[in-house]
Structure formats: structure tokens, C-alpha cells
Amino acid sequence: MLSNTKENIRLILHEIEEVHKNSYFSKLEIPKLVAVSKKQNENKVIEALNAGQTCFGENRVQEAEQRWASKIKNYENLEIRLIGPLQTNKVSQALNLFDIIETIDREKLAKEIANKFNDNVKTKSFYIQINTGSENQKSGIEPIQSDDFIKYCMEDLKLPIVGLMCIPPINEEPSMHFALLRKIAEKNNLKELSMGMSNDFKEALKFGATSVRIGSLIFGERN
User: Fold this and answer.
1) Which residues contact 155 (CB under 8 A, 6 or more apart)?
2) What is the predicted pLDDT for the residue at 223?
3) Which of 9, 64, 114, 161 is paired with 95 by a 20 to 30 Å CA distance?
4) What angle do CA 99, 30, 49 make, to 5 degrees?
5) Dist. CA 196–CA 71, nearest whole Å
């Protein structure tokens, strides 16, 4: 795919709108496109910004800081999300950089965030990452522990948890994972669902994704 970032964004937004319109969730707001800018070429990211894209997902605190610290001052309404794992020693830095952190995936991290969280930090809301496939190599809360963990984060730690995120196993039908995430969210009265990537975002929209994380379809494959 040639670098036609602007056109790619336009096409994806159109697809999101079409699938959403014909879904069971059509009465809800149109889901948000999170452009996954991690490890992407700087020119392509600028192209996306110039095309009006305002919401971006990054995997690493360091890399995100280098990319966005100055842009946050120059572009209006930017929303930067952390969609990769967060180390406890990077929590302070992350809270002052990201608008949303989507990857609370263990008790130690939740506690550290609660210790450092206050009204002055930039992060205003959090998602909990659920390991819907119970995969050993993936981070996230086991589905069976999710209700207790969500309650712990919201009631004991008083964190503003607004949603859940998941990354389905590569070799399984994603729809059952999206259905499971939605079920856990509904049970816990959480409105936001971050699910669906370049290869399965349309499926995710059918299950009520409120945001989809798309990289290669926008920017092309990473070098």
C-alpha cells in the first residue's frame, strides 16, 4: 500500500460508519478510530494529523514521549492513548503524557497508578486489559477474575475505570472474545470497549466496540 495515509483514514472512517450503522449498536455514538502510531514513520504520522486524525495509540512510554511531547502543544484536541504494557517505574511519566491508559493488567500496577493518581495528572480515565484467551504470554486479567478486579480498582483504589480492552488470540475466531469482553463490561456497567485491530475491526464493531486500534491499514506495514 502506498503511503496515502489521508485516503486510508477516510476509507476506514467510512467503513466504521457503515458497519456501525448496520449494527445492533447503531443508536450509540460512532466508534472512535485510534491510529496506532507506534514505531511509525514520522512523516506518516504528520500526514495523519494533517488529515484531521486526533486520536493515537502508542505502545511505549519513552517512544510516545519523544513523538508527542511537542506535538501536544501544536495540535488541538489530541488524544494520546497507551495501548501497550506499562511498567510500574514508568507510571508517573505515563500519567503526565497519556489522556487514557488502556492497559491496567495486574494488581501491582493498579496500586502504583492509584498512588500517583491525582487531579493534576493528564490521564483522566483508564481501561482494564482482559486476557480473554487466557494466554500465558499475554498480559491481562483472567476473565474469571475480572469482576473482582474491576470492583477492586473502582471501589478500593477509586480509579476512574471507564472500559475494557482485549487482544484476541491470533489463531482463534475473534468474535467469541469480543462477545466475552462485552459481557464482562455490561455486567460491570462499563461503557467503553477497546477491541478490534486492522484485521478484525469490522467484527469488533458488530459486538459494540467503542474504539478500534488500527495501524497497518492506515500507515502500511512497519519497516
Assistant:
1) none
2) 63
3) 9
4) 50
5) 27
One-letter amino acid identity for 18? E
What percentage of the chain reaches a pLDDT higher than 90?
Answer: 93
In whole angstroms, give the CA distance from residue 20 to residue 44: 27
**3-state SS assignment for residue 55:** strand
The CATH number assigned to the domain holding 83 equals 3.20.20.10
How long, in residues, is the chain?
Answer: 223
Q: Which three cell numbers stand for residue 159?
A: 480509579
Q: What angle do CA 215, 207, 40 make, to 5 degrees?
A: 5
Domains of the chain: total:
1
Domain span holding position 68: 5-219
Q: For residue 147, what are the CA distances in angstroms to 144, 167, 184?
A: 7, 18, 7
